[in-house]
């Protein structure tokens, strides 16, 4: 059996390398709750909130925060039960693999599942896989992946494949054959699929935007998936988004909510919400990228990022620069 020296083990587990998952900050429930309330006021729907919040949290490697998100969502939504909320979060985490890599999804899904085990309903969580690729379905998997790719990147879908192939001939082969086909594009509806969470075409774009925004450094990809969400809604996918699965009851207004989410204002809400969650979870220790570290004069108070010592008489200065810039642009257009 292979062995490693104690010194090497200490080096691997060095705190400076941040080897562990990110703990849930005490204020994360407040942050989630504020964003959920804002989304309800703007009528953006509950599932898009779960998609952006969970995807951001997976990106920041904080399974304990996922437990808080599950609690808040399932206790306040008339459409998502604790079971269906858990299945939705698990499905979101699976799709995060395409944007964050495998390790964070392994960490978060594993600890999340263990945390859910104390609930009697957790015995009903699905245990049957639905994405196996075999000789009978490989062609249909390929077709589904190509269809999703074309939907997101039209009218540049062919040029993009050629450009990726210039970087490495197998790059588009792997992206389409290992991600868009088997993972990002949903398999056909079956009895077992209906037990799992449903993350359809538009919510997949929300997941992509949230993951990429939270990890930072990939602005071109964020832009691509912002356009991808808009295109999905223009192509009529909003009407198909909430078609069953473990998504619980379907709200008749969810389709319209998704259309609103695809507006510039809705997309601004997605991005600024991701920023708030990212700063709240990893601002005190850094994470995927140091961009989310809190400035020395910032702190989190009741879910808001504020200037230290500026809470007297309830006056709070939100320091999110992106949000301030958006506000200035809007005012200049009036």
UniProtKB/TrEMBL annotation:
InterPro entries: AhpD-like (IPR029032), PTS1_Protein (IPR052999). It comes from the Eukaryota. PANTHER family: CONSERVED MITOCHONDRIAL PROTEIN-RELATED, PEROXISOMAL PROTEIN 2. This is Dol-P-Man:Man(5)GlcNAc(2)-PP-Dol alpha-1,3-mannosyltransferase. It comes from Podospora fimiseda. The lineage of its organism: Eukaryota, Fungi, Dikarya, Ascomycota, Pezizomycotina.
